[in-house]
Amino acid sequence: QRRVRVSSGINAEYGGRPMLDIQCHKLIAYSGIAVSLCLIYLLFNPSSIVAAALYSAIVSVHGLWFCEVGFILLSPFENDFWKKDSAAHSMLANVFFCWTFIGVVGVMSGVAVVMDKHYNKYPSDRTRSRHIEMNGLLDSE
Questions:
Q1: Residue among 64, 45, 71, 67 at smallest CA distance from 105
Q2: Could you give the CA distance from residue 33 to residue 99 in angstroms, rounded to a whole number?
Q3: Which of 24, 32, 49, 96 is deepest in the core (most CB within 10 A)?
Q4: How far apart are CA 141 and CA 108, in angstroms?
Q5: 45-72 residue pLDDT tens
Q6: What is the DSSP string of 28-65?
Q7: 84 and 20 Cβ atoms separated by less than 8 Å
Q8: Residue 57 and residue 102: Cα distance in Å, rounded?
Q9: Closest CA to 24 of 99, 91, 118
Q10: In terms of C-beta density within 10 A (0-12 exposed, 13-18 middle, 19 or more buried), how is residue 23 classed?
Q11: Are 34 and 62 in contact (CB under 8 A)?
Protein backbone atom coordinates (compact mmCIF):
# COMPACT_ATOMS: atom_id res chain seq x y z
CA GLN A 1 0.00 0.00 0.00
CA ARG A 2 1.06 3.51 -0.76
CA ARG A 3 0.69 6.11 1.96
CA VAL A 4 0.04 9.73 1.28
CA ARG A 5 1.55 12.10 3.76
CA VAL A 6 -0.74 14.98 4.61
CA SER A 7 0.86 18.17 5.83
CA SER A 8 -0.35 19.06 9.29
CA GLY A 9 0.59 22.74 9.17
CA ILE A 10 -2.08 25.39 8.73
CA ASN A 11 0.26 27.39 6.52
CA ALA A 12 1.09 24.54 4.12
CA GLU A 13 -1.23 26.00 1.49
CA TYR A 14 0.61 29.32 1.66
CA GLY A 15 4.00 27.93 0.71
CA GLY A 16 5.24 27.46 4.26
CA ARG A 17 5.02 31.13 5.24
CA PRO A 18 4.72 31.89 8.96
CA MET A 19 1.25 32.29 10.43
CA LEU A 20 1.84 35.89 11.51
CA ASP A 21 3.02 36.84 8.03
CA ILE A 22 -0.09 35.32 6.47
CA GLN A 23 -2.44 37.05 8.91
CA CYS A 24 -0.84 40.48 8.46
CA HIS A 25 -1.02 40.21 4.69
CA LYS A 26 -4.65 39.06 4.85
CA LEU A 27 -5.52 42.15 6.88
CA ILE A 28 -3.69 44.36 4.37
CA ALA A 29 -5.70 42.74 1.58
CA TYR A 30 -8.98 43.22 3.47
CA SER A 31 -8.25 46.88 4.09
CA GLY A 32 -7.26 47.30 0.43
CA ILE A 33 -10.57 45.82 -0.66
CA ALA A 34 -12.37 48.16 1.76
CA VAL A 35 -10.50 51.14 0.26
CA SER A 36 -11.60 50.07 -3.23
CA LEU A 37 -15.24 49.65 -2.18
CA CYS A 38 -15.26 53.02 -0.41
CA LEU A 39 -13.76 54.68 -3.47
CA ILE A 40 -16.48 53.19 -5.69
CA TYR A 41 -19.13 54.38 -3.21
CA LEU A 42 -17.54 57.85 -3.19
CA LEU A 43 -17.51 57.98 -6.99
CA PHE A 44 -21.24 57.28 -7.13
CA ASN A 45 -22.01 59.74 -4.29
CA PRO A 46 -19.55 62.63 -4.78
CA SER A 47 -21.49 65.14 -2.66
CA SER A 48 -21.92 62.81 0.33
CA ILE A 49 -19.94 63.85 3.39
CA VAL A 50 -20.43 60.37 4.85
CA ALA A 51 -18.80 58.77 1.80
CA ALA A 52 -15.85 61.16 2.02
CA ALA A 53 -15.42 60.56 5.76
CA LEU A 54 -15.66 56.79 5.31
CA TYR A 55 -13.12 56.85 2.51
CA SER A 56 -10.64 58.95 4.49
CA ALA A 57 -11.04 56.69 7.53
CA ILE A 58 -10.44 53.51 5.55
CA VAL A 59 -7.43 54.99 3.74
CA SER A 60 -6.02 56.07 7.13
CA VAL A 61 -6.49 52.57 8.54
CA HIS A 62 -4.86 51.06 5.44
CA GLY A 63 -1.83 53.36 5.68
CA LEU A 64 -1.40 52.90 9.42
CA TRP A 65 -1.66 49.14 9.05
CA PHE A 66 1.09 49.19 6.41
CA CYS A 67 3.33 50.94 8.95
CA GLU A 68 2.40 48.53 11.73
CA VAL A 69 3.04 45.49 9.55
CA GLY A 70 6.46 46.89 8.77
CA PHE A 71 7.26 46.97 12.48
CA ILE A 72 5.68 43.57 13.12
CA LEU A 73 7.31 41.59 10.33
CA LEU A 74 10.57 43.51 9.87
CA SER A 75 11.30 44.84 13.31
CA PRO A 76 14.05 47.48 13.38
CA PHE A 77 14.93 46.57 16.95
CA GLU A 78 17.46 43.95 17.99
CA ASN A 79 15.19 41.91 20.26
CA ASP A 80 12.26 40.91 18.08
CA PHE A 81 9.12 40.51 20.21
CA TRP A 82 7.05 38.84 17.52
CA LYS A 83 7.15 35.07 17.13
CA LYS A 84 6.22 34.39 13.54
CA ASP A 85 4.64 30.93 14.07
CA SER A 86 2.72 31.77 17.23
CA ALA A 87 -1.08 31.69 17.13
CA ALA A 88 -1.18 34.06 20.10
CA HIS A 89 0.91 36.63 18.27
CA SER A 90 -1.28 36.23 15.19
CA MET A 91 -4.31 37.06 17.32
CA LEU A 92 -2.42 39.98 18.84
CA ALA A 93 -1.91 41.34 15.32
CA ASN A 94 -5.70 41.12 14.83
CA VAL A 95 -6.23 43.04 18.04
CA PHE A 96 -3.79 45.73 16.90
CA PHE A 97 -5.66 46.02 13.61
CA CYS A 98 -8.98 46.45 15.44
CA TRP A 99 -7.50 49.04 17.80
CA THR A 100 -6.06 50.89 14.83
CA PHE A 101 -9.53 51.03 13.31
CA ILE A 102 -11.07 52.17 16.61
CA GLY A 103 -8.37 54.82 17.01
CA VAL A 104 -8.98 56.23 13.54
CA VAL A 105 -12.74 56.32 14.13
CA GLY A 106 -12.15 58.02 17.49
CA VAL A 107 -9.88 60.69 16.01
CA MET A 108 -12.30 61.35 13.17
CA SER A 109 -15.19 61.59 15.63
CA GLY A 110 -13.22 64.06 17.73
CA VAL A 111 -12.49 66.19 14.67
CA ALA A 112 -16.18 66.06 13.74
CA VAL A 113 -17.22 67.24 17.22
CA VAL A 114 -14.71 70.10 17.18
CA MET A 115 -15.81 71.18 13.71
CA ASP A 116 -19.45 70.97 14.73
CA LYS A 117 -18.84 73.11 17.81
CA HIS A 118 -16.81 75.63 15.81
CA TYR A 119 -19.12 76.02 12.83
CA ASN A 120 -22.43 75.84 14.70
CA LYS A 121 -21.58 78.94 16.74
CA TYR A 122 -22.48 81.09 13.78
CA PRO A 123 -25.02 79.18 11.70
CA SER A 124 -25.78 80.42 8.23
CA ASP A 125 -29.16 82.00 7.46
CA ARG A 126 -30.31 78.85 5.69
CA THR A 127 -29.59 76.67 8.70
CA ARG A 128 -31.14 79.16 11.11
CA SER A 129 -34.30 79.54 9.05
CA ARG A 130 -34.67 75.78 8.69
CA HIS A 131 -34.27 75.43 12.47
CA ILE A 132 -36.89 78.11 13.10
CA GLU A 133 -39.29 76.50 10.63
CA MET A 134 -38.88 73.13 12.33
CA ASN A 135 -39.49 74.68 15.73
CA GLY A 136 -42.59 76.43 14.34
CA LEU A 137 -43.92 73.13 13.01
CA LEU A 138 -43.35 71.39 16.29
CA ASP A 139 -44.95 74.19 18.32
CA SER A 140 -48.11 74.26 16.21
CA GLU A 141 -48.97 70.64 16.95
A1: 64
A2: 19
A3: 24
A4: 38
A5: 888 888 888 899 999 999 999 999 988 8
A6: HHHHHHHHHHHHHHHHH-TT-HHHHHHHHHHHHHHHHH
A7: yes
A8: 10
A9: 91
A10: buried
A11: yes
